[in-house]
Design brief:
- This protein is mainly alpha-helical and about 250 residues long.
- It folds into two domains: about 100 residues, no CATH class; about 160 residues, no CATH class.
- It has nine helices and no strands.
- α1 runs parallel beside α4 and α3 runs antiparallel to α4.
- The relative contact order is 0.09.
């Protein structure tokens, strides 16, 4: 494979990661995507040379050029993780037919999950407009790639139903409405029982480990609420990239 193609993919991922950071903030503030980026502390417009993904963060030593307030590590981490995930899916999908459609679906899915991860982690809310729009496009792209439309809808119902039951049983205390819609998106994106089960095992397993760690360090109490969306996003991304290997490894144990 030409080395320049992975480099281009990585660079594209950095750019998309930078856009996702901007999108998350403006979505939270109910602002349009038009206009120049600005510092959320002093609101000074950011010049292009201070807005280079990852690089500018380190050149500025993690501080705004104008007000010298600290820049959140969220920005370089989202940019770098998006680039690495784009590259990983490209390397996996590169030998597949319909590469362009497949990458469009996978990269859209990664981008949406990144938004969900950051938004829910920071504000304990799932941006449902993002989930709805992503679900519609994922559905169309999956049908173009050969999926059976009614099977996608069945698995979307299964994914949503799993969280709806928890929502009703716990009287809205266990999961939120956003988790139901996120479950529908996961069902559309992973229309197999084994993949959905893997996402749930990974998500609830990671959530339990983190929750116990926070309890041990007294960062959270037994009645504290911990956002589920970030763990579902991590579980879904792991399943997207390594799911088949993990499932085959598990089945090979028997």
């Amino acid at each position: 494979m030409d080395i320049f193609i992975p480099i281009i993919v990585f660079g594209f991922g950095l750019i998309i990661g930078s856009f996702l950071n901007c999108f998350v903030w403006r979505l939270y503030k109910s602002e349009t995507l038009g206009g120049r980026s600005y510092c959320p502390k002093c609101h000074h417009q950011i010049n292009w040379y201070d807005n280079l993904p990852v690089l500018s963060f380190f050149l500025l030593q993690g501080r705004c050029r104008y007000c010298r307030e600290a820049i959140s590590w969220q920005y370089p981490l989202v940019e770098l993780s998006t680039a690495l995930l784009f590259l990983a899916t490209f390397m996996i999908d590169s030998a597949m037919p319909d590469l362009a459609w497949l990458l469009a679906r996978d990269w859209l899915f990664i981008s949406a999950l990144t938004i969900v991860f950051v938004y829910d982690l920071r504000w304990q809310l799932i941006p449902m407009n993002v989930v709805w729009a992503t679900g519609i496009v994922i559905f169309l792209l999956s049908v173009i790639l050969g999926a059976v439309w009614w099977q996608l809808l069945v698995y979307a119902a299964i994914g949503a139903g799993f969280f709806l039951i928890q929502y009703l049983v716990t009287k809205k205390r266990g999961v939120g409405e956003g988790d139901i819609w996120l479950g529908a998106l996961l069902g559309l994106s992973f229309p197999t029982v084994s993949q959905l089960m893997l996402i749930l095992v990974l998500s609830y397993g990671l959530g339990s480990i983190v929750s116990l760690g926070l309890l041990a360090r007294r960062k959270k109490g037994w009645k504290s609420r911990i956002a589920l969306g970030p763990f579902l996003a991590i579980g879904a991304i792991i399943t997207l990239i390594w799911g088949e290997r993990l499932i085959n490894w598990y089945l090979g144990l028997f």
